[in-house]
Amino acid sequence: MFKKVLIANRGEIALRVHRACQEMGIRTVAVHSTADATAMHVRLADESVCIGPPAARDSYLNVAAILSAASITGAEAIHPGYGFLSENASFAEMVEAHGFTFIGPTAEHIRMMGDKIAAKQAMASLNVPLVPGSDGELSSFEEAREVAERIKYPVLIKAAAGGGGRGMKVAHSADELEEAWRVARTEAKAAFGNDAVYMEKYLDRPRHIELQVLADTHGNVVHFGERDCSLQRRHQKLVEEAGSPALTAAERDALGAQVTQGLSKLGYRNAGTLEFLWQDGQFAFIEMNTRLQVEHPVTEMVCGIDLVKEQLRVAAGETLGYAQSDITFGGHAIECRITAEDPVTFAPSPGRVTTYHAPGGLGVRVDSALYSGYAVPPHYDSLVAKLVVHGKTRAEAIARMRRALEEMVVDGIRTTLPLHQRIMADPQFQSGDYTIHWLERFVGLRD
């Protein structure tokens, strides 16, 4: 096992990785920008190195500075967390080329799954079901029109190198297609430096279901069940559940068996998440994230397995040490993503936290790097805390989450705590009868 790991990230995920390392007797190195000099992950790590000014491109995306920090501190491995460089294949290659272990998949698989078209083609070769659409990149508007006529409107144009809802536009008719085509390509070029797009059938009432997987370097692949991530605002997840209120155990097991067999054939390693749309009992693959997910705690709560520790063990060359049949699912878990945003307008709200109180009690977990007096910087993602609860049943988990939300105090900045309270109190959410379009109607948004 590694003696020292550098954590190439910030905030709650850096703290999360540090805690797993600490429990395994692994020393940690925190890297930070000048804006994060007093951040909790920096204060708790065994060592810390400043890698640049506040802008992410000059610090957390500064590959040379991160590799230098690993070298001067004698780190053996680098954990990328999520976001920033976590799905950057070139970074993974450079980490390995400089003699460090990259705690994640191979650069080959990061590159494959980072290209949405290549990912779909790979899944098709493994007989994983796909959303109807184009066979690959659309070469012209004329081809887009032909595909739309074949799969029928409404259709969704998506950036091949996309993510987070950028470069994604819906066309409900032929009259809307040209505008959607133009805007999607423009956004894709601006966001990813690549204007390649493809097309999928736009499903009118799907749920967003994802499957957590883990593979070692000895050919063993397992899954840890599904998460329902259907509560989204502009393709950004706000609430996640494990398991899904809509799926049966038989559906989960069938999908899990198909996916793990396919990834074994690909020779995949470490953690990953496959994302699907689910409607009328049918799954359709949309993408794979080759990293740890923000919402991984809900899976840990129902499985009792620390996924970060498993990542570390796999990266160190150890076998999983258990089979699929050894993984059990108990109870229900819900995660609310608390962001530093206005709960109505969603305007960013950085600033100094004057009072912070985390809720507690049975079945309550808070992943956060906040503390009273901490200044939330304006330079990074607005996520400031993940409030996670577990209950024997979904009803108990909702009741526990409502209680925990009432207890949680974050003063000095605006947060989305009131929005989550509204969601948990809503009868339709409580019934479990919702789709990926429900939340935007709930908050009064229209695409």
SSE order and pairing:
Blueprint: E1 4-7, H1 11-23, E2 27-33, H2 40-44, E3 47-52, H3 63-73, E4 77-79, H4 89-97, E5 101-102, H5 107-114, H6 116-125, H7 141-151, E6 155-163, E7 166-171, H8 174-192, E8 197-201, E9 207-215, E10 221-233, E11 236-242, H9 249-266, E12 270-279, E13 282-289, H10 296-303, H11 307-315, E14 332-339, E15 351-352, E16 355-357, E17 364-368, E18 375-376, E19 383-391, H12 394-407, E20 409-411, H13 417-425, H14 427-431, H15 438-442
Parallel strand pairs: 1-2, 1-4, 2-3, 4-5
Antiparallel strand pairs: 6-7, 6-8, 9-10, 9-12, 10-11, 11-14, 12-13, 14-19, 15-18, 16-20, 17-19
What would your notes on this structure say?
By secondary structure, this protein is an alpha+beta fold. The chain has three domains: 4-88, Rossmann fold (3-Layer(aba) Sandwich), CATH 3.40.50.20; 132-201, 2-Layer Sandwich (Dna Ligase, domain 1), CATH 3.30.1490; 207-442, D-amino Acid Aminotransferase, Chain A, domain 1. Helices cover 34% and strands 27% of the residues. It has helices at residues 11-23, 40-44, 63-73, 89-97, 107-114, 116-125, 141-151, 174-192, 249-266, 296-303, 307-315, 394-407, 417-425, 427-431, 438-442; strands at residues 4-7, 27-33, 47-52, 77-79, 101-102, 155-163, 166-171, 197-201, 207-215, 221-233, 236-242, 270-279, 282-289, 332-339, 351-352, 355-357, 364-368, 375-376, 383-391, 409-411. Strand 2, helix 2 (40-44) and strand 3 form a beta-alpha-beta unit. Helix 4 (89-97) runs antiparallel to helix 5 and helix 7 (141-151) packs across helix 8 (174-192). The longest helix is centred in the middle third of the chain and has 19 residues, at 174-192. It is globular, with a radius of gyration of 21 Å. The N and C termini lie far apart (49 Å). The model has no long low-confidence stretch (mean pLDDT 95).
